[in-house]
Amino acid sequence: MKSPFIFALSTLLGTIIGAGIFGIPYAVAQSGLPLALLYFFLLGGMVWLLHLFVGEICLRTKETHRLIGYGKKYLGTGGGIFFTFTTLFGVVGALLAYMVVGGIFLRALLAPLVSLSDFTASVLLWVVLSLVILRGIRLITKAELFMNAAIFLAVGLVLVLVFPFMEASNLFAGGGGDAFLPFGVLLFAFVGWAAIPEIAVLFKERKDKRNLDNVISWATFLAVFLSLGFALAVVAVTGRETTQDALQGLVPIVGDRVIILGALFGLMSVAASFLVLGNYLKNSLRYDYGTPYGLAAGVAILIPLALFLLGTREFVPTLNIVGGVALSMEGLGILLLFHKAREKGERTPEYEVRVPKPVLFAIAAVLLLGMASVLFL
Question: Domain holding 356: CATH number?
Answer without folding.
Answer: 1.20.1740.10
